[in-house]
Amino acid sequence: MFDDFTDERIDVGEVELRVRHAGRGLPVLLVHGHPRTGSTWHRVAPQLVERGFTVVCPDMRGYGQSGKARILPGHSQQSKREVAADLVRLMDALGHSRFAVVGHDHGS
Question: What is the C-alpha separation between 11 and 43, in angstroms, rounded?
Fold first, then answer.
């Protein structure tokens, strides 16, 4: 899976996210659902790269091989706001200030 994709961990502040990315062109962030990981997109991602997109497939915080945040009262560390902020910081770290987002289930 994910042949020719870079597989790395990127520090986004509170956690490190595991991310697979490849391609050149308009960036597309593919966000997985619960309880899945970025591997959800293993069939779609290469097709998007072939069509000229840059594709980014992270494991969200607390999922797969990404880091887990310190547990806070009310579990706010897993709020959609915190997860979205991680993903924006991830895309910024990869050099993408503007990008499309595709989500599945929880990721949408």
Answer: 26
Would you give the end-to-end CA distance of the chain in angstroms?
A: 23
Q: How far is CA 65 from the centre of its chain?
A: 11
Q: Which residues have a Cβ under 8 Å from the Cβ of 5 and sit 6 or more positions away?
A: 20, 21, 22, 45, 49, 55, 57
Beta bridge partners of 16: 11
pTM, full prediction: 0.94
The residue with tokens 């959800």 is 40
pLDDT per position as a tens digit, 19-36 = 999 999 999 999 999 889
- Specify the residue for token string 């391609």: 23
- In order of 39, 43, 87, the CA distances from 98 in angstroms are 23, 24, 12
Residue type, 10: I
Q: Dihedral through CA 27, CA 50, CA 66, CA 37, nearest 10? A: 110
- Answer whether residue 95 shows pLDDT above 60: yes
